[in-house]
Here is the input.
Amino acid sequence: MSKPREFYNNFQSKLISDYTISNKRMESAIINLGSFIPSSTENILDIGCGIGWSTHEFAKALPHSKVVGVDLSPVLINTASKLFSRENLRFETLDVTRELPENLFDIIVMIDVYEHIPKDNRQAFNLSLNKILSSQGRIIMACPSKFHQLWLQKNNPKGLQPVDEDIDFEVISRLSKDVNAEVTFFEYQNIWNQNDYFYAVLTKNPRYGVDEQFPELKLESKEERQARLKNQLKVEVKKNTNKNGLEKILSKLKKKVKPK
Ligand SMILES: C[S@@+](CC[C@H](N)C(=O)[O-])C[C@H]1O[C@@H](n2cnc3c(N)ncnc32)[C@H](O)[C@@H]1O
Here is the structure.
């Protein structure tokens, strides 16, 4: 098994913990990046969807769109498929550096994913994104900033993942050129620290002077998420469960879902 796949097969406690305790990084990315998805969107691809939290929220907010979540890890995709089921939503295990779904997408989402594409694969990946991004499609993405990566490299290298590249505006401009798009939005964010993340939107053939409609994104509440974990995964998190308690509960889940 490849090192990244093995790593992400063991990443589900972290992602379920983010989901359960309302991780600020994810909530902010879903709400803010989701605000760039027009109501008229037909097809959405969520790359590196993990346990499918963002994928599900977008499928819920845009019931007329077909939404696909893909991830390298079969363990995460297995959990996503159990947690979330909707008619307009499906999940697939895929290494996006090797292949991408063949149809066209109006929106391609990457939340904390582009930095995990190895630098050597980047341009080929960019060109393959171009093939599946529709003529007025958008890539909407969140990445840790180069400032945050530098801080991790110096102060907490264990916090870095097997592939964890530095992504800055120059890299985003290159991606934008490779997919024949314009950078229509780029903004640093203060999630845990000043300027630790950025959000970017790359748009092919941006419209001018058109009033687009955007749906209201209302995330499921913490209580609804905990009920989903209980009903779909048989993981019961009590109101006062702290981080340690959660780790204990999730370690049982890990044994139930064996990596392929
Ligand atoms: C930092 S996690 C982000 C997960 C989720 N989007 C979030 O923000 O919580 C990175 C995700 O990208 C996925 N990933 C990394 N390399 C990938 C690849 N080559 N193909 C598909 N998914 C990949 C990992 O399995 C993991 O779920």
Q: What stands out?
A: The CA atoms of residues 152 and 158 lie 8 Å apart. The pocket of S-adenosylmethionine is lined by residues 4, 8, 15, 18, 26, 48-50, 70-73, 76, 94-97, 111-113, 116 (CB under 6 Å). The chain is about 40% helix and 20% strand.
